Amino acid sequence: MTQCDVLVVGAGPAGIAAATAAAISGRRVLLLDENPAPGGQIWRVGQPMPKGQAEGQTAKNQAIARLCACGASCLFGYSVYDAPSAGELRAICESGEAAAGPVPGDPHIVGLRYEKLILATGARERFLPFPGWTLPGVFGPGGLQALVKGGFNVAGQRIVVAGSGPLLLAVAAHLRGYGANVVCVAEQAPLAKMLPFAASLWSHPARILQGIQYRAALGTAPFHLGCWPVAALADEVSGKLTGVRLTNGKRTWTQHCDLLACGFHLVPNIELASLLGCAIQDGFVKVDHQQRTSLAHVYCAGEPTGIGGLGAALVQGEIAGLASAGKPTDSLQGRRLAERKFALKLEAAFRIRPELRSLARPDTLVCRCEDIPYAALEKRSGWIDAKLQTRCGMGPCQGRICGAATETLFGWKQTSVRPPLMPVPVSALVYPGLQPVSLKEHL
Ligand SMILES: Cc1cc2nc3c(=O)[nH]c(=O)nc-3n(C[C@H](O)[C@H](O)[C@H](O)COP(=O)(O)OP(=O)(O)OC[C@H]3O[C@@H](n4cnc5c(N)ncnc54)[C@H](O)[C@@H]3O)c2cc1C
Questions:
Q1: What's CA 440's distance to the chain center, in Å?
Q2: Is the pLDDT of residue 443 over 90?
Q3: What's the gap in Å between 235 CA and the centre of ligand 1?
Q4: Is the minimum distance from the CB of 304 to ligand 1 under 6 angstroms?
Q5: Nearest C-alpha to atom 7 of ligand 1 is from which residue?
Q6: Cα distance between residue 170 and residue 58, in whole Å
Q7: Is the CB of 142 within 6 Å of ligand 1?
Q8: DSSP conformation class of 252
């Protein structure tokens, strides 16, 4: 059993900022993440960023350097899957090499005891079902970007980037930087919502500049507003993606492509907070100005409290780290408020349009883990009924993809979260314990 004063789950920007602030304040901190290295989604380790797009790199390097120097311990490659008792979490590493466990290849389980817990579990992409969305060659924009950072070659590939959210433009620009031929970007939000959003950014000049840089990186590729995919098309013989049918509500056309990157903004990862019993409000973890949840010893920072981007994650993480160590956070409250306002603007601008709820045909898969089509779900009365009658949401992703989709399609809420948070081997019921290493040693 590993003990610490402050346990931080999630080593994205929010978790890194939280761990650093708490450790500098003199607390014994353990930072844990299921990825093999710190950075989260935006600072994912991988291929160097394309030329001219490494602007986030400096911020990342500074944050990692501060983390290295602050004395926090770390465990990477471990996923938290259970909270068996108050003040205790359990995490599993399924790679024997990373866990340095006694038997290479065996999963390694560690028990973690904490006085204060900071949840910085980030967000994932939202996928909405439309005919062809499960074809090979269709990715989430962030997922494709992660693959490319991991070495997947997109040079010369014709790519359509579609869906919703600021991630589309960022990913499209990155893909261009890696040599892809981005043929167009299709954003479902209409001009009528984008104009006020753009105008409201006058107080965020850095964000305006970043948007302009991303758009410039796209060159002459069109950026369609109020435009969404209705079907992904494949060659009947090879099954290979050949294009995507796009519509603007008035006109529908085929855009030929080799890859489609499609995702509809982000969904917060609130499963662990829900399992612990933290109050959830409008789909997000409810926190006060100190990032404290409804449980006095549990804090939450970053995307689970509202989709707000990097700036929000950093300031909320720092506040959570300081507050967990009993330090004042007054000097950060102005930034926190400004980022909160930005998150609300994002939410309003990229709200899902009603047309996207009727793209699925009766045979379109909604739960791709368990092969459950739309027709099997539309007669169900809610999430639990759908699980019991069809096995929707009971596959490896445990409803992380279809849960968000059915919420948008049918308004179903996922009412309960039970351990384990992800499928784990039976051996996860018995565990020996493990000592974390210092971050310097790890890197
Ligand atoms: C796929 C994807 C790609 C993105 N790419 C960009 C981009 O290119 N540019 C941009 O501006 N923004 C991007 N974003 C948005 C970006 O994630 C946010 O703006 C912000 O950086 C979030 O920081 P965070 O620390 O809250 O969360 P994250 O960076 O998401 O970090 C959360 C961390 O928690 C870990 N975690 C979650 N649950 C567990 C668990 N049970 N056990 C152990 N670890 C756990 C995850 O592995 C992850 O490392 C992306 C988002 C996603 C989902």
A1: 26
A2: no
A3: 34
A4: no
A5: 42
A6: 17
A7: yes
A8: E
> Is residue 101 over pLDDT 60?
no
| pLDDT tens string 28-49 | 999 999 999 999 999 987 766 6
Tell me if 159 CB under 6 Å of ligand 1: no
**Cβ within 8 Å of residue 211, ≥6 positions away:** 166, 169, 198, 201
CA-closest candidate to residue 350, choices 442, 263, 252: 263
Distance CA 127, CA 265 (A): 9
Supply the residue whose CA is at minimum distance from atom 21 of ligand 1: 310
Catalogue all structural domains in the chain, each as residue range(s) with its CATH number.
2-124+267-344+428-442 (3.50.50.60), 127-264 (3.50.50.60), 356-410 (no CATH)
The atom of ligand 1 lying closest to the CA of 304 is: 26
- Angle at which helices 309-324 and 333-349 cross, to 10°: 140
Q: Taking a C-beta distance cutoff of 8 angstroms, is the pair 323, 287 a contact? A: no
Strand partners, 164: 264
Answer whether 129's CB lies under 8 Å from 263's CB.
no
Q: What is the pLDDT of residues 340-384, one digit of tens each?
A: 999 999 999 999 999 999 999 999 999 999 999 999 999 999 999
Lowest-confidence segment of 5-9, 211-215, 290-294, 321-325 by average pLDDT: 211-215
Q: Is residue 303 in contact with ligand 1, taking CB distance under 6 Å? A: yes
Which regions of 18-103 does DSSP assign to beta strands (E)?
A: 29-33, 73-76, 79-85, 88-93
Place of tokens 């999430």: 383
Task: Return the H-helix or E-strand segment holding 439.
Answer: helix 439-442
Residues 6+ apart with CB under 8 A from 287: 293, 299, 300, 305
